[in-house]
Amino acid sequence: MSAPRLDSLSVGDVVAEREFSLTRDSLVRYAGASGDFNPIHYRDDVAASVGLPGVLAHGMLTMGFAVQPVVDWAGDPARVVDYQVKFTRPVVVDPETGALVTVVAKVGALTETTARIDLTVTFDGSTVLGKAQVVVELA
Amino acid sequence: MSVNPELQGRVFPPAPPYLVGREKVREFARAVFATSPIHLDPDAAAEAGHTDVVAPPTFPVVIQEHTLAQLLAEPDAGIDFSRVVHGDQRFSYSRPIVAGDELTATLTVTSVKTLGPHAMVTASSEMLDSSGAHVVTSVSTLVVRGGE
């Protein structure tokens, strides 16, 4: 797929937006794929025993899917050369209704060869990732 | 038990080489809701100029699990796993990971800071391919909550 043209981008442009619907199944699938079997991500009793409001999504799962709209926009995952986040709030995944997480990807900065895409990742009215920045090489 | 400040600067022996499998890349890609065919379909990846499917940007966490396990198992580290919270994470690539890569990761503890009863440990896993060329560095900050 062809890459977006750098000269067509301006800081502040929204390049992608997507909603992700997580269920407990998503967490079990991610546990298996990643090898992170911490039981706070699938057992209510363990989550409660360490004072959590419920079973939480893996921070790395949220980081993992939040970049996908940018990968699709960039056209090739190989164009993502740097990706960082801070984990600021947990995503609680209800056993029945799951959790709905929204990702908005905006141009944060441009250089001669790269676009920095800043992600706003929201759950239940609050952002859950801080300084979520993806550097995409476009030239 | 508290985090040993002398961990700062410690370099661990390289973890055993990790062979990136095509089906593992696909399994991980599905688990992070990836839709790009370049993660899933070898033909689409070849069309884009890659030798096999390309791993999602956060895939190195699978390999980082092995290096962080070395750190948590270090007898004098003083890190209680049940008190660890992931603070931040970064991946910096020299080239993408593709299925067939054999990656060797070496962990360095780049910083240990204490904040009252809590500690923040930053660990960097540098991943090289079988020719010794740099592929990606994965940097993780773990927040270790102090005892009550």
From TrEMBL, chain A:
InterPro entries: HotDog_dom_sf, MaoC-like_dom. It comes from the Bacteria. Residues 14-107 form the MaoC-like domain. Gene3D superfamilies: Hotdog Thioesterase. Coiled coil: none annotated. Belongs to the enoyl-CoA hydratase/isomerase family. This is Acyl dehydratase.
TrEMBL record, chain B:
One of its GO terms (biological process) is fatty acid biosynthetic process. SUPFAM superfamilies: Thioesterase/thiol ester dehydrase-isomerase. CDD domains: R_hydratase_like. It comes from the Bacteria. InterPro entries: FAS1-like_DH_region, HadA-like, HotDog_dom_sf, UPF0336/Enoyl-CoA_hydratase. Residues 9-137 form the FAS1-like dehydratase domain. GO terms for molecular function: (3R)-hydroxyacyl-[acyl-carrier-protein] dehydratase activity. It holds the Pfam family FAS1_DH_region. Coiled coil: none annotated. Belongs to the UPF0336 family. This is UPF0336 protein D9V29_14295. It comes from Mycetocola manganoxydans. The lineage of its organism: Bacteria, Bacillati, Actinomycetota, Actinomycetes, Micrococcales.
